[in-house]
Every structure is written in C-alpha cells, then in structure tokens.
C-alpha cells in the first residue's frame, strides 16, 4: 500500500464520519468490545498528549479501511496511544486489509512503534511481539449467579471468607452499599489520593503525580459514549467510601483500571468485596466480561474465570536510530521478564520496592 493513501491527523481533527467508520470497523473485528480500542479513548488522549496522532488508511475507492492511533516522540520513536496507562492497544483495520507495518510506520514518520498491551489477533504487529502476558478476566456472561456458583465450587473458602468480612464490615462500620456508577467527582479525587498513596507505599511510580494522567482520568470520568464511558464504582460503609474503582466500559466489557481502598479498612478486604459487587452489578447492567488487566495479583487469581493474552514488543524500521533505541531498551525488558518469571526473585524485588517506598515517604503506612 502506498503511503500517499495514509494521512496522519491529530485525534481532534477526525470528523464525525471517521468516528462512525472507526466504530463500524471495530464492531466487525469480532474482538471483545474493549473500550480502550474505541475512538473516544484516543480522542481523550489527544486532549492531554500533544503528540498523539491517528493514521487514517484509505481504500483505492476513497473509502476508509483503518485507523492507527499512536504517539510520536523524539527521533521517530512511536508508542501506543496512552502508553503507560492504556490496557489494550493496536490498529483498527478492515479484516483482510493488505498492509505491512513497515509501510505504515514510514507513512507515520516513525522508526519504531512500541506496545506493551497489544491486543490478541493484531496480525499486523503480532510478529514483532517479544513476549506475551495473561490479562485476567471475570466472565459474567451467563449471569452473576452462575459466576458465584462456579466461584463457590472452585474456591469455597475464598468466597465464604470474603462474604463474612462484608457482613462484619457492615456491623462495625455501617450498612454496606455499592454504587456502580457514582457521579460525584469528589469521590474520584479520593480514589486518586488512595491510589497515589498505594503507589508510594509499594515503591512504584505514582501515576497520578503526572498531570496528563490526572487530566485524562478526569476527562474520561465525564465521557459518555456507547463504546467508552468512564465508570466510577464505590463501596460505602455507612456514608463513608471504603473502596473504589475507576475504569472504562462499553456495552459488554468493563475494563478494570484503577482500584484502591482506604487502608484503615484493610482487614475487611474491601477491594475483594468491591470486585464481587462490581461483577454482580455489571452483570445486571448487561456487561459480560470484566477485564482485570495484566499483572499477577492474588485477588485476580481468586476472582478470575479465564485469561486473554496481550503482547509486549516493538515494530522497528531498519535504520540506525531505531536500532539504537531498541538496543537501549531490550536489556531492561529481558531483566524484567527474567524476574517476573521467577516467583522468588519477584518477591524479593517487590519487598525491595516497598522498602524503598517507605524510605521515600515515611508517613505512608
């Protein structure tokens, strides 16, 4: 395909027809209706990331055959749109479109395109994946009752203990109630404060210390579209929020993004209670799948019903700049992968990060 038939625009310059075609192509892909792959997420990133771009790919007859959202950095280095916070990435293309990544990258002025959560069945970039990861999901497509029945059969102690803690929380802290779609922005700010404290406590980089991420979440909180809406879900004990989650939803998929809880209630496992409440309410609202994302966690092991696969890697055009960029990053990738694949080393690394976090912020519990 000639690069003359690929135009690169800012997300905000996409027209209404482009947006509608994007949605139609996505619906025809056969993939789960994941909100990160909808145009609204790219439009939101475009508001807070000046280097966000979209390649619009045209057919011979002038019709649109696909969209490729990306961010363009120095020396032609590109990343997935919203890189660092986007939980699913890739191009939105007409099935069977004859296109190769080298042609696409050249038209976009990119020497590399880096991804860390590439969607399954992204055939254009799949050969460039360096490794794969499970993304853990909760399937409530057959209703919450069937999910809980399966959970009870697989992990009876886990479910029994969580429900007992919920009852105890209600007795000691006030009636437990859950709101699937909380519209109070003050509660969103509380969630971000909890999450920032969690990042510091565990020695991780505080995402909400970055202005563009805060602005992105606040904008998406007000976004309402069939394929991508911000959803703030909150667990209350009495009138006090004890756990909350902000994510994105389509009609049928809830992408779990930022969960956190008040540490003073940790003994009640409010995060687990929150996720069970989310699964119950989401199923009642037509959502069939909750995607908890990549990254191993004990609570995910307890709640999951299955896994999707996401990929990490980069498409690289031949050239000195791209080769230097990739060579500089790949040793770090291999080291992280080596540690992740060895639970004992991963545990030591995690404890080291937690100690570092306490040294940086001795006030964190």
From TrEMBL:
Describe the location of the BioF2-like acetyltransferase domain by residue ranges: 160-300
From the UniProt annotation, give the residues forming the signal peptide: none
Q: Which Gene3D superfamilies does this chain map to? A: 3.40.630.30
Pfam annotation, one family: Acetyltransf_6
Q: Which domain of life is it from?
A: Bacteria
What InterPro entries does its record include? Acyl_CoA_acyltransferase (IPR016181), BioF2-like_GNAT_dom (IPR038740)
Name of this chain's protein: CelD/BcsL family acetyltransferase involved in cellulose biosynthesis
Q: Which organism is it from?
A: Streptomyces clavifer
């Amino acid at each position: 395909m000639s690069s003359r038939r690929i135009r690169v625009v800012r997300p905000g310059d996409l027209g209404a027809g482009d947006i509608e075609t994007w949605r139609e192509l996505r619906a025809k892909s056969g993939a789960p209706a994941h909100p990160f792959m909808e145009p609204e997420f790219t439009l939101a990133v475009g508001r807070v990331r000046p280097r966000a771009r979209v390649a619009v790919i045209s057919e011979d007859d002038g019709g649109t055959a696909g969209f490729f959202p990306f961010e363009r950095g120095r020396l032609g280095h590109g990343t997935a749109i919203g890189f660092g916070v986007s939980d699913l990435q890739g191009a939105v293309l007409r099935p069977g479109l004859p296109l190769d990544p080298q042609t696409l990258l050249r038209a976009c002025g990119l020497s590399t395109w880096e991804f860390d959560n590439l969607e399954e069945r992204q055939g254009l970039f799949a050969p460039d994946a360096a490794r794969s990861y499970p993304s853990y999901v909760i399937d409530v497509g057959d209703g919450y009752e069937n999910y809980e029945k399966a959970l009870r059969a697989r992990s009876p102690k886990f479910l029994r203990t969580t429900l007992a803690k919920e009852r105890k929380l209600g007795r000691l802290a006030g009636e437990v109630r859950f709101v699937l779609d909380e519209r109070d922005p003050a509660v969103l700010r509380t969630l971000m404060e909890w999450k920032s404290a969690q990042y510091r406590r565990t020695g991780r980089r505080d995402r909400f210390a970055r202005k563009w991420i805060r602005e992105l979440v606040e904008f998406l909180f007000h976004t309402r579209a069939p394929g991508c809406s911000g959803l703030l879900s909150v667990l209350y004990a009495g009138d006090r929020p004890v756990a909350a989650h902000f994510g994105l939803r389509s009609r049928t998929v809830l992408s779990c993004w930022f969960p956190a809880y008040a540490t003073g209630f940790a003994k009640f496992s409010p995060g687990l209670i929150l996720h069970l409440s989310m699964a119950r309410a989401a199923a009642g609202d037509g959502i069939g799948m909750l995607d908890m994302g990549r990254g191993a966690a004990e609570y995910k092991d307890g709640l999951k019903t299955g896994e999707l696969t996401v990929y990490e890697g980069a498409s690289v055009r031949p050239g000195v700049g791209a080769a230097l960029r990739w060579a500089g990053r790949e040793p770090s990738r291999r080291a992280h992968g080596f540690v992740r694949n060895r639970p004992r080393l991963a545990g030591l690394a995690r404890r080291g990060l937690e100690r570092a976090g306490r040294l940086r912020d001795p006030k964190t519990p």
